[in-house]
Write a structure and sequence with these properties.
The complex is a heterotrimer. By secondary structure, chain A is mainly alpha-helical. In chain A, 72% of the residues lie in helices and 3% in strands. Chain A has a single domain (2-119, 128-277), classed as ABC transporter involved in vitamin B12 uptake, BtuC (Orthogonal Bundle). Chain A is globular. In chain B, helix 7 (178-188) packs across helix 9 (200-226). The chains are: A mainly alpha, B mainly alpha, C alpha/beta. Chains in contact: A-B, B-C.
């Protein structure tokens, strides 16, 4: 019994990062109606950057969030500005192929640069734990959760309270309306993608203290993000947030109940089920 | 008249070529032909029906593994086994299609479904001892034509060429038929097609089954050309990309597209292998990614249709 | 015995009642106009009748058979074809190929379909544009193509959704003549229209919808004088209703 509770707690904590990851994807879809197939790969680049800073300069992953967030922000903005902005009117299939291309490039450049072997960041406090009753709390996981929550809250406040945030929300609700009041739509899109990417870059840093990763982890994160966002409703902030926690918990429970090596299969089976039984999506057919 | 002459010359050249070129070139040509063939198969669903599939590696693998297992376990010739593989692949495609089309999965959602199924297949294959699991499946080399095994590359050359010709022929027949007209209509606008009496579900299923079955046949060829099957090669998303990138670059929805795309990509591959000998593990796929981006941005219809269009515009007298 | 009988058909989306207990008959060979302010539920009604949406309640009986639950292609195969409010040509196909798709509904081979298509193109005045790509067509030609494609299926009933929208007076006049010609061939027509000139010129009877409900039915002259109808349009924008604006 305690094993399950432990799994739930761990899953919940990791779920925080998943939420952040999904929020980024949701933002990108909500504003531009673009499906970022490269989402997970951007996150992995955040992780590699974090790893590199740690290994070369001893920078703690939690501190390098600023760097990874900014770097991946730039990456996302560049992708939007240089690529996606040019094909906003193209059929959806074209956008998907474009982002698939970006994903392939990101993942395989990582493969060329870093090689296929998994990397891990071993911080001094990696094994620190504290107890609350019978439940063990992993310090890295708790810190990660806290920071993820803070960033999510920050994003929420940004979107709700700042002018820039309002512009972004306006652009996502009503593109024509936003254009009419003089919004430079392309700039808003670039910014929105950048922010969405920054979320995922930061999420990468947050994951490195306890998750080994390799270039192929990107696809896993991408699929997980899709799972979360499709369950929670594409474009829904709250949906992405709650969905992230849910998926974190179910993944953790799944690892306990099933053979660990089947964990990946669960993720894909889950995706199939979600696709079939999803709540009415915003994409895929006008009715 | 000129066309007929050129065509005959090309045909003769193709028939004679393998005897004159070194083994490495033979391999290049074989690979070009059979990826062009796979591209034709993919194209039926992706280019003509307009349903992008990112999971064709699954059908390829079913063809490869089925014929391999039937041969090694039950001594059934791959010449027969390949049709069993094609049948199984078609059944899987009908299953996916039923789930996908009935549940209204279009565009992005459908692509995700195909990807998820292929990944599930890969993960299952990695854990199945029957299929060799992680170490993979080795096929004994006994150059016995009845076992789809030949000495030297030349027989494979002609078989691959044969696959391509027959595959292209099938697509050509489809293109001229009611099936072809309906598939293209579905691609352009599903709802409008429905309103005009097109049973979009049925025709998408037909396209899917054909596409899957033909792809599986190609898988058998691969199995008996490489003699080794490993899930992380055969069932990987990179392989699905391999299959679909040739028709997309060359021109989805055309017959020459996959062929042209295949030649272009083999040349590109050779170029990168020659000049970037080391560390090519990811380079090929990086190139694929860049190509996809370039095609989407600048050549959305693919190389062949764009070229054809450009050539038409230079001769204003010709009708479009 | 009417060809199409709709009884008590309703469709709601969440709390919004798009169509509410609509009933009407369409006799064989008739030309029935369907009018009403924007958002009155006319297109939704078309969706219900043609199989694109399933009614929450009510019946749709066509030639003695219920259409509820049938897919749109089944409905088309039974002889009832609809067009779309915003024309949806197959953009990357030629005009001829567009119409061939329609014609293939009733023949098995391309060659026969091409023959039918050419005939239909001649009838609808598109013969000269047979080789043009769908995406290169002007709006009036797109509307004609929409009509031609539907005609090629050999329908018994045509459901036309705002075929006149966006056309200038000359084009409108031409299209009115074309529709009359089609009607003259014995095809039953139900048309949604905002362009009053067309509605009055073509309809034998008119059905008026407002907020999803039938508020009036009758001859054009009766309907135009009906106070409920006038109020429905006045409540919105009377100038718009009279000028036939979209």
């Amino acid at each position: 019994m305690a094993l399950y509770v432990q799994a739930i707690v761990n899953g919940f904590l990791v779920g925080g990062v998943y939420s952040l990851m999904a929020l980024g994807l949701s933002l990108i879809f909500g504003v531009m109606r673009v499906i970022n197939f490269a989402h997970g790969d951007m996150m992995v680049w955040g992780m590699y950057l974090s790893y590199w800073l740690f290994v070369t300069a001893g920078v703690d992953p939690y501190l390098s969030i600023l760097v990874t967030g900014s770097a991946i922000f730039l990456l996302g903005a560049a992708v939007q500005k240089g690529l996606v902005n040019r094909i906003l009117d193209a059929p959806h299939e074209m956008q998907i192929l474009l982002m698939l291309g970006v994903a392939l490039v990101l993942e395989n450049v990582a493969l060329m640069v870093w090689g296929p072997d998994p990397r891990r960041v071993s911080t001094t406090y990696a094994l620190s734990t504290f107890w609350l009753g019978p439940i063990v709390f992993d310090l890295p996981k708790v810190t990660t959760f806290g920071l993820a929550l803070a960033l999510a809250l920050g994003l929420y406040l940004f979107l709700k309270k700042t002018d820039l945030g309002r512009m972004i929300r306006a652009a996502s609700d009503n593109q024509i309306g936003a254009l009419l009041v003089g919004t430079d739509i392309l700039k808003v899109f670039t910014l929105a993608f950048g922010i969405g990417a920054a979320c995922v870059g930061a999420a990468g840093s947050l994951m490195t203290p306890f998750l080994p990763f390799s270039p192929s982890t990107g696809l896993f994160f991408t699929i997980t993000s899709f799972n979360i966002v499709i369950i929670g409703g594409m474009g829904s902030f709250l949906g992405a947030f709650v969905g992230g926690l849910l998926v974190g918990v179910s993944e953790s429970l799944g690892a306990v109940i099933l053979v660990p090596s089947l964990k990946e299969i669960v993720s894909f089976v889950l995706l199939v089920l979600i696709l079939l039984f999803r709540p009415q999506g915003l994409l895929g057919g006008s009715r | 008249m000129l066309r007929l002459g050129l065509g005959t010359a090309a045909a003769v050249a193709l028939l004679v070529l393998p005897f004159w070129v070194p083994s490495a070139w033979q391999n290049l040509l074989i690979t070009t032909f059979y990826y062009a063939y796979l591209g034709q198969a993919w194209n039926i669903l992706g280019g003509y029906a307009g349903q992008l599939s990112l999971g064709h590696a699954a059908f390829f693998a079913i063809g490869a593994y089925t014929s391999a297992v039937l041969a090694t376990q039950y001594a059934i010739s791959p010449w027969l086994g390949m049709f069993a593989g094609a049948a199984l692949a078609a059944i899987l495609s009908l299953g996916i299609g039923y789930l996908g089309f009935r549940f209204g999965l279009r565009g992005f959602y459908f692509i995700l479904l195909t990807l998820a199924v292929a990944e599930i297949c890969r993960l299952i294959a990695l854990h199945l001892p029957l299929l060799g699991g992680y170490t993979g499946l080795f096929i004994n080399y006994t150059p016995n034509p009845w076992q789809f095994q030949f000495q030297g590359k030349i027989p494979y050359y002609f078989i691959a060429l044969g696959f391509l010709v027959v595959g292209s022929g099938i697509v050509w027949l489809i293109q001229r038929s009611k099936l072809g007209a309906y598939l293209v209509a579905i691609r352009e606008d599903e709802d409008a097609s429905e309103a005009l009496g097109v049973d979009t579900f049925r025709y998408k299923m037909i396209a899917y089954a054909l596409s899957a079955g033909l792809t599986a046949l190609g898988g058998t060829f691969y199995a008996y050309y490489q003699y080794y099957l490993q899930p992380n090669t055969v069932l990987h998303i990179n392989h699905s990309v391999d299959i679909m990138i040739r028709p997309i670059v060359g021109g989805a929805g055309t017959i020459l597209g996959p062929v042209l795309g295949s030649f272009l990509l083999e040349l590109l591959g050779e170029f990168s292998r020659t000049y970037f000998a080391g560390g090519t593990a990811g380079l090929t796929v990086v190139i694929y990614g860049v190509l996809l981006i370039i095609v989407v941005l600048f050549l959305p219809r693919g190389v062949y249709p764009t070229l054809a269009h450009l050539m038409r515009r230079r001769r204003p007298g010709r009708a479009a | 015995m009417s060809l199409l009988r709709v009884s008590g058909a309703s469709k709601a989306f969440g709390g919004l009642r798009a169509v509410h207990r609509v009933s009407f008959d369409l006799a064989e060979g008739e030309m029935l106009g369907l009018i009403g302010p924007n958002g009155a539920g006319k297109t939704t009604l078309f969706h219900l009748v043609s199989g694109f949406l399933r009614p929450d309640e009510g019946t749709v009986i066509y030639a003695g058979e219920s259409l509820v639950g049938l897919r749109p292609h089944d409905v088309c195969q039974r002889g009832m074809v609809r067009t779309f409010q915003i024309a949806r040509p197959f953009l990357r196909l030629t005009v001829l190929e567009n119409v061939v798709v329609g014609a293939l509904e009733r023949v098995a081979h391309r060659r026969e379909a091409v023959a039918i298509a050419e005939e239909v193109l001649a009838l609808t005045g598109l013969a000269g544009r047979a080789g043009s790509m769908g995406h290169s067509l002007t709006l009036p030609d797109r509307k004609r193509l929409e009509l031609a494609r539907a005609l090629a299926t050999g329908p018994r009933v045509l459901l036309l959704d705002e075929v006149m929208a966006g056309l200038n007076p000359t084009e409108t006049g031409r299209l009115i003549d074309l529709i009359r010609a089609i009607h003259g061939r014995g095809i039953t027509i139900l048309l949604i229209e905002h362009v009053m000139k067309a509605v009055m010129a073509l309809s034998q009877r008119i059905l008026v919808l407002n907020y999803g409900e039938v508020i009036a039915q009758g001859s054009p002259e009766e309907v135009v004088r009906d106070p409920k109808v006038i109020e429905a349009y006045l409540g919105e924008d009377s100038a718009g209703a009279e000028a036939g604006a979209d």
